[in-house]
User: Fold Glycogen synthase from Phormidesmis priestleyi Ana.
Amino acid sequence: MYVVQMASECAPVIKAGGLGDVVFGLSRELTSRGHCVELVLPKYDCMRYDHIWGLHEAYRDLYVPWFGGAIHCSVECGWVHGQLCFFIDPHSGDRYFNRGKVYGDWDDQMRFAFFSKAALEFLLKSGKRPDVIHCHDWQTGLVPVMLFEMYQYHGMEKQRVCYTIHNFKHQGTWGVEVLQATGLNRAEYYFTPEQLMDNGNPMAINFMKGGIVYANYVNTVSPHHAWEARFTEVGCGLQPTLAAHQSKFGGILNGIDYGIWSPEVDDQIEMTFSIDDFENKVINKKALRERFLLRESNQPLVAFIGRLDQQKGMHQVHHALYYCLDRETQFVMLGSASESSINDWFWHEKLFLNDNPDCHLEIGFQEELAHMIYAAADIIIVPSNYEPCGLTQIISLKYGTVPVVRGVGGLVNTIFDWDYDETHPLETRNGFVFYQNDRVALESALGRALDLYHNEPQLFAQLAKQGMVYDYSWKTPGDQYVGVYEHIRHK
Assistant:
């Protein structure tokens, strides 16, 4: 099967969040099964060019229709750790992807509307006719709209679209100008509740809604999050649209790449280890303490790794920090803030606790430190307000680091409470879960984890090893996505 992935990110060359990991991981899994997979991405000036091999010009003069004229682009291609990637490079005064960052500008919607148009134009003009175009998040929500309203009449009538939503919070909305720019036009046709009109703002079109309406199959990144999106406020206003298209909507859990995230092969940690030599994990704990100037002791080490963002439950992270210190437990945090208020808040805490030998707050993100923390920590907390899938808890399991999670989204599908999960026998449980979004609930779950660590160290080690056995690789998601592709290509 021939699959083209269209996305705004692909790790490690373009990574602003988990989307990049998923796009690369799924592509590599599909390639390993013998499918032909190509990726179409924007050519950002801030990409990690050191991860691209053999970058060269693949298509010199791509003229992309835009606002009644055309923008001259070139397309370069290269290999990113074995995956063939094509990079759209517009030569325009708007400098769409030469901003020194991936997201965060006032015209992001128009930037990615242009990328979607250019990606389809590239397929059309280069003669590429994939069986399936797999699009991701709002940035490519207009791809299936333009494919089925325009490009199918120019030789692309057989292409089918799988559309994956990673985060319903960010949907991409803009006014009538985007219809004029892309050539869709016909505002009276698209500005209807059945088409692209935003469910909360009748003066805006919604990119993500367009993807849901027009794609052949739509999924989010865990089964439980698919249910939440349909029936709770997590759908962020798209619940009626999902209900109207429920027959083609589902949830497929993300995987992770164990070639990168496994303590058995990780070259960024002090000492590799496995279930068979689990005792070597403590060497990584000692190395992290030395790195962060924490005192050596018999205390457990609790960690948080993730964006410092409201989604991640920062009020609970803050409370967990002081709860751990009160219980003579060490705490480390790694993450960068997306909001200045959260950044200022945790910088204040960092300076206030700077001389405390039992905690370290690393504000900013370094991949190497993430590996070290996963390998060193005894417990990791994931107290998210909502979590479409979550990779943190999946990675931590592999490193024998026990997750304490809030029971939302993909966390429900991956973590099973040691004390209370009646759907799994004790020998297959792998963490601690709380459901209410308050301090009492957090303390209950984290407290149970710390009590087990102190009072039943052998059982705690058994729990950690039970987590290491779980297979959250791309194998099962790969099977499911191939099944989706086969289904829609024969419709």
Q: What stands out?
A: Residues 278-469 form a domain with the Rossmann fold fold (CATH 3.40.50.2000). The first strand starts at residue 2 and ends at 6.
